[in-house]
Write a structure and sequence with these properties.
The chain contains five helices and no strands. By secondary structure, the protein is mostly helical.
């Protein structure tokens, strides 16, 4: 007969957002070779857009980080055959660009076009950094 700690009001919502972001990242990864299910990419990006619209910047960054981590962990898994540490660092670096794009897109009115723009800028950055670029 213990006392349950009080549940934080946003914890359940944050956990749901993280789970949905992981699914969204998986959808984007499914659009890449070898699966190449390209219609999954717009669905995954739309999910990220819905998850980040109206959210505070920290929640937007968290959603972007999780979606990007899943996307790049699956999309770049071939790098692990060369170096596991390099693979983990590369996934972290690439996921950070998605997190930054989501955090920088303002919540509220105009969120969808702003997110499209910041994700495009993130892709342009990945086209140049690291190692001369690794765009997916």
């Amino acid at each position: 007969m213990g006392i349950d700690p009080p549940e934080r009001p946003g914890a359940r919502r944050r956990l749901a957002a993280v789970g949905a972001a992981a699914i969204a990242g998986g959808l984007v990864a499914a659009s890449l070779p070898p699966l190449g299910w390209w219609p999954a990419a717009p669905v995954g990006i739309a999910a990220v857009c819905l998850l980040t619209d109206g959210a505070p910047w920290r929640r937007r960054a968290l959603v972007g980080l999780v979606a990007g981590a899943v996307q790049f962990a699956l999309g770049l898994e071939f790098v692990a055959a060369f170096t596991l540490v390099g693979y983990l660092l590369l996934v972290a670096a690439e996921a950070t660009t998605v997190a930054a794009a989501c955090a920088l897109a303002p919540a509220g009115r105009g969120h969808a076009p702003a997110l499209a723009g910041t994700l495009t800028l993130a892709e342009a950055a990945r086209d140049a950094v690291p190692f001369g670029g690794m765009p997916l």
